Amino acid sequence: MPSEPQPTREITVRRAPKFLPFLLAGGLVGAVVAFVVGYTGTVPDGYTRESVFGYFLVLFAAAGVLVGGVVALVLDRVSLARSRKAYVEELPEETEPQEGPKTDDDGGIGPAAQ
Q: Which parts of 1-114 fold into alpha helices (H)?
């Protein structure tokens, strides 16, 4: 029996970046910068090093996440420009063969089949 022709579809193939690693990396870089600034700079009167570090941590981590998101968006746009078209055909579904009872090494029916 001749098989009927399968429909052909056009798809777009591209490598898109995952946003979460960029956001996490930006936040981590911001935290490292906050650590350096908080523990190497001068401390204003009435503040501790830890409070200065905490302030800079919030500030630089948020800025790092923002920069990481912008970098991911730029790379996403670049991947759109580099995308390629491809044509695919749908394959007919294959039916799986029927399996008999499972046997152990000596040919007897083992506990897996019972």
A: 19-40, 49-81
Are residues 55 and 43 in contact, defined by beta-carbon separation less than 8 angstroms?
no
Nearest CA-CA partner of 100 in 92, 109, 87, 89: 109
Using CA atoms, how far apart are residues 114 and 101, in angstroms rounded to an integer?
Answer: 9
Please check whether residue 30 is in contact with residue 65, taking contact to mean a CB–CB distance below 8 angstroms.
yes
Tell me which H or E stretch contains 8: strand 8-13
pTM of the model: 0.66
pLDDT tens digits, residue range 2-56? 556 667 888 888 888 999 999 999 999 999 999 999 999 889 999 999 999 999 9
Q: Is 96 left (phi over 0), alpha (psi -120 to 50) or beta?
A: beta
